[in-house]
Amino acid sequence: MAINHSWVAANQDVAMTLLFGIGYAGIIFEESLAFNKSGVGLIMAVCLWIVRSIGAPSTDIVVAVAELQHASAEVSEIVFFLLGAMTIVETVDSHQGFKLVTDNITTRKPRTLLWAVSFSLCSQVYVFLLDIWYIIFYFMRRKKRFSSKQVNYGKREELPAVCSYAESNPIEPRFDFELENKTIAHKQLLGQNRFWGCHYFLRDSSC
């Protein structure tokens, strides 16, 4: 059977989608059709690469090598991830880690099992969305805190005379702290940050 190169080159996405659908169907119905899913997967991968080579926009060897390196990197990421995941699954299964889950499933109703599986999937999606919301909230709060610091330090430039007077004539706060640690911390705050000295000067009603 001859391959129409011009049609494959013009409709590369359609051809690859059809090949992937046929190969995936062969993997699903391997028991009914007496196929080996590993062989079907390998044949599907070879056919997809053939279609990709036919529909390649350029015959330059540099472009082909660069595209092969990019595709190999993506495939390697998936393969290494699957190797690690399957190693964990096989280790847990060898120690009968999933036996606790299978022993607790006592129902034989497909509807109940469907609800249980759907609930687990929904919980995973909920955790994922909650993580995203937490990350966004963290960065927004950090940005707001940074902006508020800029605004507070900007107020010092608006009152140069008052701040210079407060720096040259530091005053003690009019608060009577009973605890010694609070008094020490308050004095350290006045000594380290002159802006807060201006703040207490402005709040002093007798000045």
TrEMBL record:
InterPro entries: NhaD-like
GO MF annotations in UniProt: antiporter activity
Keywords per UniProt: Membrane, Transmembrane, Transmembrane helix
Membrane-crossing segments per the record: 7-29, 41-63, 112-139
Gene Ontology annotations of biological process type: sodium ion transport
Alphabetized PANTHER family for the sequence: SODIUM/PROTON ANTIPORTER 1-RELATED, SODIUM_PROTON ANTIPORTER 1-RELATED
Name of the protein in its database record: Uncharacterized protein
UniProt source species: Rosa chinensis (China rose)
Higher taxonomy: Eukaryota, Viridiplantae, Streptophyta, Embryophyta, Tracheophyta
